[in-house]
Amino acid sequence: MHELEKKVDELILQLKEEIEGISDYIFNNPELGDEEFLSSKYLVDLLAKNGFDLMYPYLGIKTSFRAEYGDDEGPCIAFLAEYDALPGYGEEKKAAHACGHNWIAGSTVGAALVLSKIKETFTGKVVVIGTPAEETTGRKVDLINKGAFHNIDTVFQMHLNENNNLYAKALAMDSWEFRFTGKESYPIQDEPEIKSHAANILSNNLSLSNCTFLAISLSVYLFAFLSNISKVILSFRYIRASGMLLNFS
Ligand SMILES: [Zn+2]
Predict the structure, then answer these.
(1) Is residue 247 pLDDT above 50, yes or no?
(2) I need a labelling partner for 221 at 20 to 30 A (CA). Which of 20, 136, 210, 234 fits?
(3) How far is the CA of 112 from the centre of ligand 1 (A)?
(4) Between the CA of residue 122 and those of 1, 69, 119, 213, what are the distances in Å?
């Protein structure tokens, strides 16, 4: 096993209580959209305790926050934490975490915590943005309009599904167009220095930074971890630039 993977495994075990604690606390204190005062405070306190710089409330949204760890050079990656509950559960029609936002907060904040502990292995910044009221007003839209994502390169989040899903897909992608000039060829029969090879080489090298790789694997790992899968070994075999297909083994 790669040394970094081993280190990540160790850290996840070290932080096990904190990560599971997030999920348990939010689950046991269900709050509706824009009223997530306990949940947001819990996350803010935990991130501050772990050395993150905090803005809370964030951009005038009372239960939103932004936590940052790292430097201004290199990629800036963000994890989104949701923590609002749904209304109308049980005989008393109370709020409850029926959609798993407690897990979303646990896995994204957990991934950010783990990354912050291995900061010496990459250049860049890890950001956690608390995004309230997902089920009602959808504060992510306000956060976008207020510029919360302006200097962020990549954003990660997980959501519950009906099965354990190790397939990651990008919801927001830019399309890039590449134009190759030179002599056309078919790679098997023609000389090596020509256009189709340039295209192959480009597609093989279009990959994300190490930091981003790790962020995706950590997110999925921790989500699986909170879902009680005993062990998911993640190692990236390849990323296909078109469609960001990730293979785990
Ligand atoms: Zn949901």
Answers:
(1) no
(2) 136
(3) 20
(4) 19, 12, 6, 11
More confident residue, 241 or 91: 91
In the block, tokens 């800036």 appear at 76
CA of 188 to the centre of ligand 1 (A): 49
- Coil, helix or strand for 119? helix
At residue 170, does pLDDT exceed 80? no
Ligand 1 centroid distance, CA of 43 (Å): 18
153: closest CA among 94, 89, 244, 73?
Answer: 73
Q: Checking phi first, is residue 232 left (phi over 0); if not, alpha (psi -120 to 50) or beta? A: beta
Range of the domain at 205: 3-246
CATH number at 124 reads 3.40.630
Protein residues with C-beta less than 5 angstroms from the ion ligand 1: 99
Number of domains forming the structure of the chain? 1
Distance of CA 238 from the midpoint of ligand 1 (Å): 30
Say what the alpha-carbon torsion angle 141, 132, 246, 226 is, to the nearest 10 degrees: -170
Per-residue CA distances from 137 to 35, 84, 100, 210 (Å): 12, 11, 18, 35
